[in-house]
Specification:
By secondary structure, the protein is α+β, with helices and mostly antiparallel strands. It contains 7 helices and 12 strands. It has 2 domains: 110 residues; 130 residues, Aminopeptidase (3-Layer(aba) Sandwich). Strands 1, 2, 3, 4, 5, 6, 7, 8, 9, 10, 11 and 12 form a 12-stranded mixed sheet that branches.
Length: 277
């Protein structure tokens, strides 16, 4: 039986702070904080903030952070944000199991708004592999720039976002540098109907599945499950034994049926330029 507490410990050990900055153009360190910038000058740039823990002892990131310490950390985030007028938005990633008193309230007071919580799902890779594509569906990696744009624009259509403008240049840059991050597509009648990335985390037993989206009229047919299976199978020879995902309520049950379990929740707090402060 999978030990939830052990998986959560593996998550905290391997998947937080510095490793979350993969794909950023630059990273700053302020105490326990990692603050990354996505995008390059002349393009839309966004900020991303994470940490292993907010306590005063960096050797023990699970040390509790009292309200005074939390307020100090949030002031550092705000100062970093305000010194970068090029950023259109900044996301701070929080976790439900962190021992940080009043963090949500302090972020809200600084103009960061909570988005929908997502379930952090972790489980063995082998539980995901082996699901064939439904009849009439072709699943393949999006290896050309044209294929990446088609997949990313479909995700924008589903999420109501402008994700493609950032992720396609980032994918091209990272793949050119030899990183094994790959965007996959499910195609029906020449149209991308589902897509998502897989990203092995260097130096760890993990790979993450990200950005999974399926057009509403194609849901309930097993396409997302087959897409996730193909993504997992593609990294089976890279030393990956665990898959993780920040999952919406749409994808969580699919991953649970494949043997992944919820170890905690993550809530992004997002500040957008021009929003309320």
């Amino acid at each position: 039986m999978i030990d939830k507490s052990q998986l959560l410990a593996e998550y905290d050990r391997h998947l937080r702070a510095g490793v979350e900055m993969a794909g950023t153009a630059s990273v700053d360190r302020l105490g326990p904080l990692y603050l990354g910038v996505y995008g390059t000058p002349g393009e839309e740039q966004t900020g991303f903030v994470s940490y292993a823990g907010l306590g005063v002892d960096p050797e023990h990131p699970d040390t509790p952070a009292d309200r005074a310490r939390v307020d100090e950390v949030v002031r550092r985030i705000v100062a970093w944000r305000d010194a970068r007028p090029e950023l259109s938005e900044v996301e701070v990633k929080t976790r439900a199991h962190d021992r940080a008193e009043g963090l949500s309230e302090a972020l809200a007071a600084a103009g960061f708004e909570p988005e929908e919580p997502e379930s952090v799902m972790i489980g063995p890779l082998e539980g995901l592999v082996g699901t064939p594509a439904p009849e009439g569906i072709t699943i393949a990696p999006a290896l050309t720039e044209e294929a990446m744009w088609a997949a990313a624009r479909m995700e924008d259509e589903v999420f109501g976002s402008t994700f493609a403008q950032r992720i396609v240049p980032e994918l091209l840059r990272r793949r050119a540098a030899g990183e094994p991050v790959t965007l996959w597509s499910a195609i029906a009648d020449g149209r991308v109907v589902s897509a998502g990335r897989i990203e092995p985390v260097a130096g760890t037993p993990f790979a993450g599945v990200w950005g999974g989206a399926t057009l509403p009229e194609y849901r309930g047919r097993g396409i997302y499950r087959a897409l996730t299976s193909a993504r997992a199978a593609s990294v089976a020879g890279l030393g990956v034994r665990l898959i993780h995902s920040d999952s919406t309520e749409d994808s969580r049950p699919i991953l649970e049926r494949a043997g992944l379990i919820k170890v905690t929740e993550t809530t992004p707090f997002v500040w957008r330029r021009g929003g309320t402060a």
